[in-house]
Amino acid sequence: MTKRVAIIGVGTTGFRATTPDLSYRELTYEAATKAYMEAGIEPKDVDAFVSTAEDFFEGYSIADEYAPDQLGAVLKPLYTVPGDFIHSLASAYMMIMSGVAEISVVQGMSKASNMLTLSEMVGFAMDPIYNRPLKEDPVFIAGMEMMRYMYETGTTRRQCAQVVVKNKRNALNNPNAGHGALIDVDYVLNSPMVSYPLTEMDISPHSDGAVVMVLAAEETAKALSDKPIWIRGIGWCSDTPVLESWDWAEATYTRLAAQQAYKMAGIRYPRKEIDFVELNDEFSYKELQHLEALMLCKKGEAGPMTEAGATEIDGELPVNPSGGCLGVGNLFELNGGQKVLDVVLQLRGEAGKNQLKDVTTGLAHSWRGIPTATGAVVILSN
Amino acid sequence: MGLRRVAIVGAGLTKFYRRAQETPKELAYEAAKMALESCEMRLEDIDCVVLGTAPDAFDGVHMNGEYLIDGAGGKRKPYMRHYVGGGTGVLSPIHGWFHVASGMFDTCLVVAEEKMSSCYPHPAGAFLTIFDHTTEQPLYPTLIWIFAIEMNRYMTRWGLSKRDIALVSVKNKKNALDHPSSQVAAEITVDDVLNSEVMAWPVNRLDVSPTSDGAAAIVLAAEHIARRVTEKPIWIDGVGWALDTSYWCTRDLYYPDYVEVAARMAYKMAGIREPDKEIHVAEPYDPFSYKELHHMEGLLLCKRGEAIKLLVDGVTQRDGNLPCCPSGGALGVGNPIAATGLMKIIEIFLQLREEAGKRQVPGKPTCGVAQAWGDLMQVGTVVVLRR
Amino acid sequence: MEELITKEMVERTATGLSERDIREGKVITTTWKPNLRYGWDNGPALGRYLAELKNGRIIGKRCRKCNRILLPPRMFCELCWRPTDEWVYVKDTGVVNTFVISYIDWKAGRIPKGQRPFTPAVIEIDGASPGMGILHLLDEVEPEKIYIGMRVKAVWKPPEERIGAITDIKYFKPY
């Protein structure tokens, strides 16, 4: 007897470059209030909470200390997953499947605008003995990976730039997105070089925001919501953090995570059974690399697919209709949360101007950003 | 729907040192390897890995969980880190438990690692950043203040003397003489404690557990595998955890509500109605001497204010009716934060299997509880184990 | 008696070092001083709290449902789970709920001989709900004379030195 778990409520503050009027407490409180209202619950109905935070991004040691108040979780079971939002979602899912919770809540937040020495913080995650002493801005890792990826797959810089154009254009119609723009491929290619071959426009700017979601076991989900979105499959995987041993061309962590999720969802032909995808495109080439790793096309096909318009909103496999990280903003640990949020909205028919027609199954994917090789995948259906 | 049964089938533990030469990855590796070898399993048999490590500030690596992946055996596996400050060590088996109990995985390797010595000038400095950045950090508080504040409140509420509380340090440091990993085991007297340097009254140096480097690991398995792997699987029968408000100045610190809420959740799941009778051996978290008593009350092992009586009457000694911290606890073995909690779980595991060597408590215990605490006097994590 | 984890097994796992080994270069070490700076948005509640501290006043916020006056003020009551209501000025006097006499600073170093030890305390502020305390320092009192229940009053920095921070109150002293 396998029970199912559904997302029955989502809440967000939207995502924008700065949020000077609100502290992290109010951001989460707003997202939580909206999510609980949608789900028709109060904090006292929730059995377990999972928050997502990394100490050095928040600026606190032990970031979980400051999580319960704004979720209504005082003296309730709550812990933090220093990972991506989709990891927290997996945790909340497992808690319901194990019988310890009937309703669980997942939270994620970004206050990237408060991180004044951002590249130093990201660099602080690098190996202290072998890599950090090189004193390089960590974005070089993405530049290096892009070089190898283009070399092995034949993908061109123009194709990567096309990703930027598409996603920023999609973001213009997404009221939650912070960085929408109307640009063309040449604009991307001619913008200042940051770490060859990545230009400024190839790299996602960052955004602030919060997302809270409510999950429930099958019966409760059906009782509380008329549009429950079912978690059909979920997988997560971490490849080695040692840069020197990396797979520079393939996103193996994504492939393994996707395999786990597809197996659980009973999906044999992803390209046919997945209607649309929200994946991590923090760096332009990443969208292509991840698309291939998700086995939605063959190695080297993602670039030409994009050029041909197959991943546009009106294409055969819409990718990042919400605008992705490039259009919404890089939300760090919350990235996966924005993607799950947009998949849920699409499946419910609440995606506004970017609404896709007749979608039943969506995939949300995340990567934890440099210098990690960790990713997670979740497959949702309505 | 019945809960899927999950058992601990293997365990490993490194030596705890104030400063270890090994890197965090190496410490995690040693513990993980020992755990796998103890039940003759290989890394390929492990479906997923779960890791606990407390503030990244100690190891000096942001996203410490990512850094430790290969040391913990997580490469190319589903790997997740969890975090509740000091409570992490006992949250680790809970987190691993629902990986297996959910039905998604059959085996799980749980690793907890801490390397505090890399933090200069002193690991205690890293605790500055756990306080609210706007309302408290400008006052340059340190963690010892908050413990001393709580100890003062607890002592005043119940009229306890430092003499009596010092017995916890004496008991635990002595118990630790028999623990292979111990860092600060010693035969000391109550006077030694009272005469040791006053750090922040009422806390003396010997009331405090040391900062340490160390790692611990356990292997979890679903019932059908557990029974094949070992003759003595130890079942995780109850899990509970709770996090209180961050506004710690509004709470009366004399009683740990967060431990009681977590304990009730675990006891309910385990079907325990009278913890003081049904629990045979306990490992409450003891980073400071008075904390063992504070937590014993939160664990409902005795009435509020009465833990001191059990201590003074010898009930919590190894040969008493309710041995507490037979391992030697944090005070005796060492306190590499996340690894300490898992060390306590391992102690109960060994005690219930009667494999605790010289530390074995008599009477064939069948039910034990381990507990950890963390944050700004905020989190309680409790696990009930049974043979 | 049977032992699953033996002393020999454990001894092999780690090597102890002393501070001297490191200082004298017996082991190769690398050091890194991270440059981690943050500019936290305080939001409307904490923002007002700090602004009023600059004015020499302490302000809280009331939750009409549980009728607590919350200090530091918050936009929502964490227990009732609802937005809070009116702002309420509280006094700058209070009662010591608990305290510490500390001989070590935040870096775990001992204070120099002869220097007065730190005496932080949780102070229940008059005008806020019972038990509603804030953390601050006590001074102008001998440490041994401090007791739980002692009445104290805030000592403010002169107006021109206040910047809108908790340190605009220098410390609390008995009165």
Characterization of the model:
The complex is a heterotrimer of chains A (382), B (387) and C (175). With 382 residues, chain A is α/β, with parallel strands linked by helices. Chain A has two domains: 135 residues, 3-Layer(aba) Sandwich (Peroxisomal Thiolase, Chain A, domain 1); 237 residues, Thiolase/Chalcone synthase (Peroxisomal Thiolase, Chain A, domain 1), CATH 3.40.47.10. In chain A, 36% of the residues lie in helices and 18% in strands. In chain A, the strands form two sheets. Chain A has a nine-stranded mixed sheet with strand order 3-2-4-7-1-8-11-10-9. A two-stranded antiparallel ribbon of chain A has the order 5-6. The mean pLDDT of chain A is 94. Chain B is built from 14 helices and eleven strands. The model of chain B has no long low-confidence stretch (mean pLDDT 93). Chain C has one domain. Chain C is 13% helix and 28% strand. The radius of gyration of chain C is 23 Å and the shape is extended. Classes of the chains: A alpha/beta (382), B alpha/beta (387), C alpha+beta (175). Chains in contact: A-B, A-C, B-C. Chains B and C meet through strand 1, helix 1, helix 5, strand 5 and helix 14 of B and helix 1, helix 2, helix 3, strand 6 and strand 7 of C.
